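Internal tracking record. Fields below are filled automatically when a chain is submitted to the structure queue. Please do not edit lines marked as system-generated. If the sequence contains nonstandard residues, flag them in the REMARKS field before resubmitting.
Queue: standard
Priority: normal
Entity type: single polypeptide chain
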Amino acid sequence: MKFSRSFEVRASLGAVRDFHARSEALVALTPPLMPMRLEASPPVLRSGDAMSFRIWLGPLPVRWTARIEDAGPGGFTDRQLAGPFAEWVHRHTFDTTGATSSRVTDLIQARLRPHLLWGPVGLTMWLGLPLLFAFRAWKTRRLLESE
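SYSTEM-GENERATED OUTPUT FOLLOWS
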């Protein structure tokens, strides 16, 4: 399965990159109706770092561990090491679109787990991606364009 979403933000490439490199950005970009707790992560993410977090889907806690790969000026990849999917690879790409504007592109490739519980959980999460990334675009603009 593939999902892709892009949006522009009135912020420099450096500001966009620096914001997304902070592990607390994941908390800031998670909607309030989807409670999330960061359990282990360095403050600034670099290639090879791992982060663990828990997301609640209703009463169900979903634990997730991801490794950061290919981190650089143009973005990074997070790869699920443990979690609800058989495979999850999420590439975050940042491009300059003007003197003070940038494009954020998210590309996710995933496979559902053939499991009685985790298959439906993964599918529910997958179907919610359009709303999640609409929220993330809005929140990124709100946080970075107000600086």
